Fold:
Amino acid sequence: MNRAGDVDGARRRSGRIGDGDGSERPIIEIRGVTKRFAAGDPAVDSVDLEIPEGELFALLGPSGCGKTTLLRMLAGFETPTSGEIRLDGSDVAGVPPNRRPVNMVFQSYAVFPHMSVFDNVAYGLKVTGVPTPERRARVLEALGLVRLDGLEARRPDQLSGGQRQRVALARALVKRPRVLLLDEPLSALDAKLREAMRIELVNLQDTIGITFIFVTHDQDEALSMADRIAVMEHGRVRQVADPATLYEYPSCRFVADFIGKMNLFEATVRACRAGELELDVPGLGALRIPHGEPAHGNIGIAVRPEKIRLNESRPDAPFAFEATVEDFAYYGSETHLYLVTAEGMRFAATIRNTARSPARIERGTRRFVSWTPSDTLVLAE
Ligand SMILES: Nc1ncnc2c1ncn2[C@@H]1O[C@H](COP(=O)(O)OP(=O)(O)O)[C@@H](O)[C@H]1O
Ligand SMILES: [Mg+2]
Structure:
């Protein structure tokens, strides 16, 4: 399902997002947008984003970082304090929500409990005066898209959580927006359903081809669904990239730590030569790592748990640290290990259980921790 480099992802990108001539205008342009509710830190702070048509774009960040506020400004429910939002090339300042080419599915996907599924979906068309025959055709089409055919007569309380979610989606899609905004669309569903709905949402977006922008605080959701992700912290966008770039090349300590699990150490650059950094890492000692760009002063270095190798004896590697297993968690397909060195340096390591009876690991097991030096991330910020 992770489409970072798969055939399907490649097809999606080459098929719809630009053809390389660079002439396509992004459907959404956000320029220097700030939203300040009261004195103090702004909820959204100087955000710049461009989102091309047909993209499945995620806004990811911890609770309170400004995701919903940014989405509500796109929808027209909030006004930016400063900055400009352009939808399909036009500045939308002063344009009310119902006149924008966007539609929003709210976090608590409100459906009318006393109305049938059909009437729930038809409601938005009714109030804008779409004539009955067209209304009926469009409602049935929207229900087909979300696979609720045949359930038109049901009331929301006769539906499962996942089906109610799809009613909310159909209500937004029936208006045929150019952009669908989804605020934590899966957060109300239980874990199994959430996973199934991830795939459904991605397939739905693929089918109808419109731009989806969805908000989530769940990194797995963002990584597995999005074409590109903007990671937010305190109202600011810290990095915008495709899932694999974000995971393998985070731009700063915050993104490195927020996305997935990470071993993060503070280090000082001792020397910076052609293609190599000589580092002093308190607790680990002198480390030499390949690095293309110049770096100096205090930096962070990081390595993902699954890049860590564990050996019973000292490996023939540029560096290795003897450590003891302090804790572990067995997940069937993989085991997460937490190790500590005599100096108190901690490592998280993930091992894949590719053999049916792997080497026994328990608390107190000693291992040498190492990794390929080029797997070390250098984080200046
Ligand atoms: N209507 C509002 N009035 C005052 N403060 C608000 C309002 N809406 C959001 N905020 C504040 O703005 C910040 C960002 O909120 P929000 O956009 O809801 O974050 P997220 O969706 O990322 O959890 C929070 O500190 C929140 O308390
Ligand atoms: Mg929110």
Residues 261-379 form a domain with the OB fold (Dihydrolipoamide Acetyltransferase, E2P) fold (CATH 2.40.50.140). The first helix runs from residue 7 to 16. Residues 1-23 have pLDDT under 50 and may be disordered.
